[in-house]
Amino acid sequence: MSALEVGGKSIELDEDGFLADIADWNEDIAVALAKTENVDMTDAHWEVVNFLREYYAEYKIAPMIRILTKAIGKKFGKEKGNTKYLYELYPAGPAKQACKIAGLPKPTGCV
Amino acid sequence: MSKVPPAAELAKIDHQPPETPWMGTPVEFRPGTWCYSGKPKVVEELGLPNAREWSPADEDWKLPDGWQKIIYEGFKERLGKYRSLKIFMDICVRCGACADKCHFFLGTGDPKNMPVLRAELLRSVYRKDFTTAGKILGGFAGARELTVDVLKEWFYYFYQCTECRRCSVFCPYGIDTAEVTMMARELLHLVGVNINWILEPAANCSRTGNHLGLQPHTFRDCIDSLCEDIEEVTGLHIEVPLNKKGAEVLFLTPSADVFADPGIYTFMGYILLFEHIGLDYTMTTYASEGGNFGLFTNQETMKKLNAKMYAEAKRLGVKWILGGECGHMWRVIHQYMDTMNGPADFLEVPVSPITGTKFENAKSTKMVHITEFTADLIQHNKLKLDPHRNNHRTVTFHDSCNTSRAMGLFEEPRYILKNVVNNFHEMPETTIREQTFCCGSGTGLNTDEYMEMRMRGGFPRANAVKHVHEKHGVDLLSCICAIDRATLSTLMQYWVPMVDAAGVHELVGNALVMEGENERTTDLREEPLADVEGEDDAV
Ligand code: SF4
Ligand code: SF4
Questions:
Q1: How high is the ipTM of this complex?
Q2: Ligand 2 center to residue B347 CA distance, Å?
């Protein structure tokens, strides 16, 4: 367990630097988490993070990558609806890096 | 998360044992070689003892008071309950036939990863506590006290065994080190020593019906999305029945097949097959998992998670159960299910509604493996197949530890592949069928923080793939296990980057000629077919 200091508050993280409690999340924390991943949050980055959070609110899990690419393509234009685009934004992999910034837990099981 | 050294460096494996005697060589908890501990919330949810925050890297593991006594009692109970354990503790003659058969030994060079020595870690304590010679002679009889260091050693090496049973194939006495590992993990659970990557999926499965923790509406959403993808490729609109009472067949598969790359393409293959033959089937959101991480935990958890299958089959009133491509799922079904949660008298002996074949082999479990089902369809000429649609791929087949060594399923997948693929090459004989090498990440060790050990354990498998890749241009490693589909993809990226992993039914799905479909220009991954590329060249 480690912690992240944001606005004078200490936020608990798990072994891999994911939020221990998704309820802690806010935009400042997202920016701080992005920094730990060397990601500068642009509007395009926020589009993905916001979608992940909306999906999580409804389905209680991060979406599978196909659902993510399709939804981003539908919402923000066909040229964005592919894994290549997502990897440009999140080089360490959209599933893990973008989920971390969105405060979502890691997936488990045969994945 | 620790960084994995580059492949060229990892391939330099030193098989020279350390200078110190094995009992005097303590474990070093280097990142990348062990898994995170179970989160307290998850441990509690499963009703396991000693939930707490701790890490294997800590000096103090916060063991409960009297932990040695707890293990002693647990050991005694299991020696009484499982004759195999008692026999395996007593009869090893240390002939060494198993020594170099374990992928973890081959990939690490660590002598404690020789199956004989792995079992000896437990056996030495058994001798001390349960044999006269060990009680009197101690170290001279190979006996030792259970200390904290011994317990740490157990944790380290019993989570460097994937219960693959390759060693048992070579043991003249049939000693099954996988069962020794299972018992050791059970004992460790008694004092709260565990790993999260097994327990969290098990807890998820108990709560939501599947390892991933997909709730019913999420499960539905994933399936609908995959049906959209099928439509994209074939032009066919197909709906997957869920929780449909009175369907003839209940179809169960690992949840990763509806969620994770590349299992999702295997799933599309199943769905196209069912549509092709007009099968009256249903899937379920209650038993939405074929796999069973309880098998890697303890008997009680395995039994509880498995119970959902028959319970749901009964509720839905189906005749029999069809199971998807998974490894350990079939170990549980084939070797434990009917006595553990059966007999399932309310089900019928499975009969294929298309060919009329009665699956006598499934008389007691009432569950048929999808490769048996599909191979039977092909043999009766019931499928319209165009293997050219897989011509853009050169394929080999990885026998999963469990489907091969736990159920002898060698011919069916190969028969299917022969009919749906034109370019197929086997890996060397000593690395397939009952001698197959594990993916290196089985028994719930498929987690990221353990990556170095996964790449080491998977090295012998990868080496055989590399051989057929270089010799025959193999670029697709097919298999019938969900853990494999995920872990072999990672393994290949590391050791043989030009090779992908795929389920057998993905290739079936590519080859199936569906009524009313659009002309296929891509495979299920939406990658162009060889013929289409050829046409482009001609233009
Ligand atoms: S069961 Fe497999 S992983 Fe375990 S000791 Fe035997 S060969 Fe090694
Ligand atoms: S092959 Fe069997 S008897 Fe020989 S050392 Fe290994 S476990 Fe013991």
A1: 0.92
A2: 42
